[in-house]
Amino acid sequence: MLDIKFIRENPDIVKKSISDRGLELNLDELLTMDEERRKLLNEVDELKHTKNIVSDEVGKLLNEKKDAKDKISKMKVVSQKIDEIDKKVDGIGEKITKILYIIPNIPHSSIPVCKDPSGNKVVKEWGKKPVFDFKPRDHMELAANLDIIDFPRATKISGGGFVLYKKAGARLERALINFMLDLHTKKHGYTEIFPPFLVNRQSMTGTGQLPKLEEDMYRLKDDDLFLVPTAEVPVTNIFRDEILKEEDLPIYYTAYTACFRREAGSYGKDTKGLSRVHQFDKVELVKFVKPETSYDELEKLRADAEEVLQLLGLSYRVVMLCTGDISFAASKCYDLELWAEGSGRYFEVSSCSNFEDFQARRANIKYRPQTTDHRPSTRYIHTLNGSGVALARLVIAILETYQEKDGSVIIPEALRPYMDYQERIKAG
RNA sequence: GGAGACGUGGCAGAGUGGUUGAAUGCGGACGCCUCGAAAGCGUCUGUACUCGUAAGGGUACCGGGGGUUCGAAUCCUCCCGUCUCCGCCA
């Protein structure tokens, strides 16, 4: 969330940010409430000050066995008044927090301003799209023929939007996870994490999924727990309510988790095969950094994710999202999109975002800078994350890119050590 | 799931109704001492909100919420968490 002080002092910047995103949200009510709250706060603080002083006096009088009835009865009235104003302050405070939770982050000045996704900018294209001398099949047909994914039975077991990998398909999934984790831990310096797949409400609020996106999340009602929509949630919340040491930063974490998304409201859109499923695997990259380095860290994070695609020899492009398409919590975000020749389109497999202090403020993650003056205070850290990368759609691109005329699929070389050095996936 | 114990500052650990934001120790910062260092001595060392140009002032916070009281870290209550024992279990 944003700092109420920042909003108070820069209402125009915040208003512009909201309208640049193509949203409507009236800040005036918030600002009025903020003013009202501070006025009441002053009032009640003064009363409490009086209360504290008089209570001490009462204590002394009683110790000396003197009469304090007069002061006590006066203080009863004051205490009542304090109660009253406190309730008002709390009430307004709650309303303010509610609004603060739904105000989006301020987009970085370097990103295109446009209220809808048409303003997204392709900033890089990598690799050649494959050329076939036959009509390429899409991944569903390939997977069915190779008997490596069984969609009908997945639907029988769980419902639409679930996947049952088999044989080389299951093996490919596991190979990709290991390949990516090894790359990020061994080459890019990330520490491997294996977090819980169920998280509580506070964690979901900390990273910004709640309260806005509750209907997109799977929730276990009896325990008020949520299935993680991304490893970003448990991993970022590792340091919730903590003050980190400056010398410990930056912290790089990578984690595999399954990701669960209800995809409410997206029925009929993009729902074929592996492109939009309720459960998919993902290796996530999460960074905790000092504010002044976060934009450099974003570029490095993106490069780390890109390397996965490069090593797999897949054709992709990098899209810088505009103000209208960037997610609620992000200041700046690059999407990596893989080309899938059989489907004839791009699939988003990664979003690399800098949240600046937006999540850190919500999740209350700070660090203590080693200041030169004698007053070391605390500052919010910056958080970043990116998929490195998401599996289901990655499998689409691999199958469709490396397909042969006979329907078999060549295994990318970087992956072979993870698949018993097989060269291709064949039927049977 | 049942029974019991506990939850205080960066850590350890006092404190059971009235100068307690909180003793003491450790850790940390600064100063003195020293050629330098150690030891020793001295001073300082939580977070947040709010008022103020500032200096500085005020308020809140002893797991969280609610309550009793003129006054709560201290009493009551609910919740959460940790530990021990029992049960169950991969």
How would you explain this protein's 3D organization?
This protein has 428 residues and is an alpha+beta fold. It folds into 2 domains: 4-102, Serine-tRNA synthetase, tRNA binding domain (Helix Hairpins); 117-425, BirA Bifunctional Protein, domain 2. 39% of the residues lie in helices and 20% in strands. The protein has helices spanning 4-9, 11-20, 28-63, 69-102, 139-146, 151-157, 167-187, 201-207, 232-236, 294-311, 358-363, 391-401; strands spanning 121-126, 191-193, 198-200, 219-220, 225-227, 242-245, 251-260, 279-289, 316-320, 332-340, 345-354, 365-368, 379-380, 382-390, 409-410, 424-425. The strands form 4 sheets. Strands 1-9-10-11-14-8-7-2 form an 8-stranded mixed beta sheet. Helix 5 (139-146) crosses helix 12. The longest helix has 36 residues, at 28-63. 36% of the residues are buried. The protein binds one RNA strand of 90 nucleotides through helix 3 and helix 4.
Entry summary:
By secondary structure, the chain is an alpha+beta fold. The chain has helices at 4-9, 11-20, 28-63, 69-102, 139-146, 151-157, 167-187, 201-207, 232-236, 294-311, 358-363, 391-401, and strands at residues 121-126, 191-193, 198-200, 219-220, 225-227, 242-245, 251-260, 279-289, 316-320, 332-340, 345-354, 365-368, 379-380, 382-390, 409-410, 424-425. An eight-stranded mixed β-sheet has the order 1-9-10-11-14-8-7-2. A three-stranded antiparallel β-sheet has the order 3-5-4. Strands 6-12-13 form a three-stranded mixed β-sheet.
